[in-house]
Amino acid sequence: MYQSIIDALLDLDEEKVIICVRQALESQMNAGDILNRGLIAGMDVVGDRMEKEEMFIPEVLKAAKIMGAAVQILKPLLTEDSSSSKGRIVIGTVKGDLHDIGKNLCAMMMESAGLEVHDLGVDISPERFIEALRKTDSKILCMSALLTTTMPMMKRTIDALVESGLRKTVKVMVGGAPVTQNYANEIGADAYAPDAGSAAKAARSII
Is the pLDDT of residue 38 over 70? Predict the structure, then answer.
């Protein structure tokens, strides 16, 4: 049954995914297992295909939308334990930068991977990132920048994390069109992701 859910999700067949999820529930299958071994496993494949350029943004968005519809069916049955949320993340585009398409896709893929995502939006100052990390007790900070002129805000935010005392407990992931692995290394980030699929995978591996 799990494979049927995965196959239907990869076919972008929302009706079939919903039917498979309902059938799984009627068969007394655990909601957490349906989520993890069916829906999330399917979105992992979507992420892999996106990285290999075998699936593209419109298809990934549709898959995430289908996943969201299926999760709504499971939500009342999911327990508030590790099976329904694998960790908390704060994500946002850095101060001075108003681009959000890539960041939104990353947030969507991370949610589809079972992570609890707190999306702050765009033009986020170091202080707002720190405030959100404290408020949500998130252990990963994901920053996006789409302009070379706003990339230095990533370093400023990491410096602010150090000053706040949170750096030892918070992992930092960076991404965006002009950002590279070398730049991530330079500013002391823990991880770099070139696309949404790899960002979700990296976040899960960090947690």
Answer: yes
> Domains of the chain: which residue ranges?
2-77, 88-206
Average pLDDT over residues 117-126: 97
Domain 88-206 fold is Rossmann fold (3.40.50)
CATH domain 2-77 topology:
1.10.1240
Query: pLDDT tens digits for 129-153?
Result: 999 999 999 999 999 999 999 999 9
CB-based contacts of 20-28 (< 8 A; 24+ apart in sequence): 21/70, 21/73, 21/74, 22/73, 25/73, 25/74, 25/77, 27/1
164/166 Cα distance (integer angstroms): 6
E-only strand ranges, the chain: 88-93, 116-119, 140-144, 171-175, 191-192
Q: Assess contact for 157 and 173: CB atoms under 8 A.
A: no
pLDDT in tens, 73-101: 998 887 654 444 579 999 999 999 999 98
